[in-house]
Amino acid sequence: MHDIHHIPLSDIDADALPRDRISLAPSALSELQASIASLGLTHPIEVWAKHDPLPDAPRHGLISGLRRLTAMRALGHTTIPAFIRAPSDIAEAMTRMVAENEIRAAISPWEKGRLVTEAVAEGLFPTFDAATDSLYRTLDRHRRARIRAMADVVAEIGDHLLTSPETLSQNQITRIAFALRADLGPLITTALRTSKQKSPDAQWKTLLPILLEAEETARTPRAPLYREGRPRRMAQVRSKLHIRRERTPDGWSLRFTGPEATGPLMEDIMDRVEGDFGQTR
């Protein structure tokens, strides 16, 4: 049985590891605070003793229990019950954190992929494959493969283009990953960057035509419809005018975005189309 230590909150570094949680839900945190205020903290957090802490810096790094630590701080406690673990290195500490959260906390698919990319960026693992296999070693091969695909999506799109990436479902991220494998990454990032609609639902609707094209192309045998280097899916004809080709249920559309995408310009384009393909009747 491991001893429980009561460690000062000021002596715990919550950011010692890349976390697998982007944000804490206020409602869930409030419920946890109410439970702790009524019943006390029933499950100690996990920390490890740093080997070489900086002067006046916390001597312990948090492994698991971010919500519990945050709630205890909000309630004004000065110490917290904790198990002191002895991981062999930071990578092992991260693996313990992941294992704990797989049991206790609902970590979104995006957050899992993000943790893999951060672990590699921090130099803790050489590749996404190595990070996934180590951090999620308790999962079966198919679930690890899904997380590995999520890491590709996070690496390609990043956190800054999507308003609330942690709200994306497993199926949504899988569809985006499929489109990335079809070399539609630049089209996806351009669509998100140039769209003025920034709500999660609107951003998903922006992506749907691109995802549908990738999926339709995979279902349909390739035919020599285009010359080499085509089809073109987007063009920037001026610095403030972007054109993007999109698949629709019954055909294709050209989407014009940017400050120069004005009504008069659309009239000019319609005139040019009529001139090239024949007058309307």
Brief synopsis:
With 281 residues, the chain is of the alpha/beta class. The chain has helices spanning 26-39, 66-74, 90-104, 109-121, 128-135, 141-157, 170-181, 185-194, 200-219, 263-277, and strands at residues 4-8, 12-13, 45-49, 60-64, 79-85, 234-238, 241-248, 251-257.
What are the defining features of this structure?
single chain, 281 residues, alpha/beta, Conserved hypothetical protein from pyrococcus furiosus pfu- 392566-001, ParB domain, 3 domains, 5-stranded mixed beta sheet, 3-stranded antiparallel beta sheet, 8 strands, 16% strand
Physical arrangement of strands within the biggest beta sheet: 1-5-3-4-2
Distance between the termini: 86 Å
**Overall 3D shape:** elongated
Number of domains: 3
Total strands: 8
- Helical content stands at 40-55%
- SS element count, helices: 10
Which structural class do you get from the secondary structure elements? Answer: alpha/beta
* Average pLDDT metric: 86
Order of helices and strands: EEHEEHEHHHHHHHEEEH
How much of the sequence lies in strands comes to 15-25%
> What composes the largest sheet?
5 strands, mixed
The oligomeric state is: single chain
Radius of gyration: 25 Å
